[in-house]
Amino acid sequence: MAVTESEADSTHRGTPAVHEGILRRQSARESAARTYARALPIVPVRARGLTIEGADGRRYLDCLSGAGALALGHNHPVVLEAIRKVLDSGAPLSVLDLATPVKDAFITELFRTLPAGFADRARVQFCGPAGTDAVEAALKLVRAATGRNGILAFTGAYHGMTAGALAASGGAPDLQVGRLPYPHDYRCPFGVGGPRGAELAARWTESVLDDPKSGVPRPAGMILEPVQGEGGVIPAPDDWLRRMRRVTADRSIPLIADEVQTGVGRTGAFWAVDHSGITPDVMVLSKAIGGSLPLAVVVYREELDVWQPGAHAGTFRGNQLAMAAGTATLTYVRENGLAERAATLGDRMMKQLRQLQDEFACVGDVRGRGLMIGVELVNPAGGSVPQARGSESDGWDSAAAPPPADPELAVAVQRECLDRGLIVELGGRHNSVVRLLPPLTISDEQASAVLDRLADAVTAANRDRQRTG
C-alpha cells in the first residue's frame, strides 16, 4: 500500500485522494484498538488554536484538544518559541533524570502554581511520558510509604490504561481496590442527588473504613478525580472533597488527586482541588503540563519520599522539549488569567446549553466546571423507575429516576457535529455524554460558533431519531 505519486504531490494541497488514502492505510495497518480514529475519520495536516485543517481541505473547530492536553490549543506561538529555543541552543533533548536549566525552570514554574502550603514541602518524580505512568508511580509510592497494599477508588473513575491504573478505574483485578460511590447529582447512586447524596456517599466511605467487618483493610491510599472526565464530566462537590480530605487525614491514608485532565486552568482554577481549598498528599499531573508534548509527573509530600535510588525510573522522563513547552504553557496560563477566563466563559456556555436542555427532552443534563463541559443525552421515551429523593427536611419522598442514557443518539450527535465542522468527544458510563474540552484560549466568537454547531447537531440527530421511531 505505497503512497502513489499523485497522492504525494497533493499532500499539501488538501485533496480527497490524500484524505481517503491515508485513512484506508490506517485501517489496514493499525491495531483494532483504534478509538478516536473510528469516530473521527479526519486527517489533520495543519492546526492553530481551536482550528484543525484536514487533508481533504475541510476546517474543524477542535473541542477535543488532544483529550484535554492542549490548554493553549494547537501550535500556540509561546509553545513553538519555547521549543525552537531549545532546538536552536544545541541542548540535549533527552537526559534521563539529569538536572538541566530547562528542567529547573519547569519545576520552578510548576511549584509556583501548586496549592498553598504544598510546594514548600513537596517532592517531584518525573515518570514515563503518559498520565497512566504517573498514576502507577503514585500507587507505587503510597504502597511503599505506608507498607499497605490496597487502594480506595471511586465508581466512574478513569486513571489510565496500564494495569494498576485500570484496576483503580474498575477495569482490572490485579490490584486490591475498594470501590466507593462518587457523588452524582443527575444519577445519584442513592437516588437522592445534591448535598444529601454527597453526604450519604461520604458516610458510606467512613463506614467502609471504620467497620472491621467491611472486608476492606486499611488502604495505602485513596485516589480520586476532582472532576471525573471520562466518567461523564462529573464535578465533585467541594464540601465532599473537603470531607474526603478529613476522612483520609484522620486515618493516615494518603490522598491522591488525579489532575491529569483537570489541571492547568481547565476547570476555572489552576488546579481543580483549588476550588475546595484542599491540599492532597499526592498530585498526579500530565496532559497540559507538557504544552502538547508527552510529560507526566507525581508531586507529593516530602514525608512520603521513602523511595531508594532507582526505585522508580523511566527512559523518557527527561524530555527537554516537553519541559520547555510545559513551562511556557504554565506561565502563559498563570500570567494571562486563563483559569479565571475558563470559569467565566464556561459558566456562560453552560447557561446557553441549559437553554438547549429546556428545548429538547433528549438533553437530560448539562454539567461541568470551567471549560470541562458535558451534555448527557437520554431517551425520554425509555421510561423511568421510582426512586427516593431527599426532602428539605432530610426525609424521603418519591420521584422518577432520570431517563435511560442514549449512547446511539450521542454517536449520532457526534457525527452531525463532525459534518458541521465540530470535533467533540463522547464519555460517561454508557458513552452518552457529549464532552467539550476547548482550549483555554477560545474566543467568545468561537465559543458561540461551537454552541451553534452543537445545537444544530442535536436538532438534526433528534429529528432523525423521531423519524425512525
Automatic annotation (TrEMBL):
Disordered: region residues: 1-23, 382-405
Keywords per UniProt: Aminotransferase, Pyridoxal phosphate, Transferase
PROSITE patterns, sorted: AA_TRANSFER_CLASS_3
Pathway: Amine and polyamine biosynthesis; ectoine biosynthesis; L-ectoine from L-aspartate 4-semialdehyde: step 1/3
Signal peptide: none
Cofactor(s) the protein needs: pyridoxal 5'-phosphate
Keyword Transferase tagged: yes
InterPro entries: Aminotrans_3, Aminotrans_3_PPA_site, Dat, PyrdxlP-dep_Trfase, PyrdxlP-dep_Trfase_major, PyrdxlP-dep_Trfase_small
Name of this protein: Diaminobutyrate--2-oxoglutarate transaminase
Keyword Amino-acid biosynthesis part of the UniProt annotation: no
Assigned protein family: Belongs to the class-III pyridoxal-phosphate-dependent aminotransferase family.
E.C. designation(s): 2.6.1.76
A molecular function GO annotation: diaminobutyrate-2-oxoglutarate transaminase activity
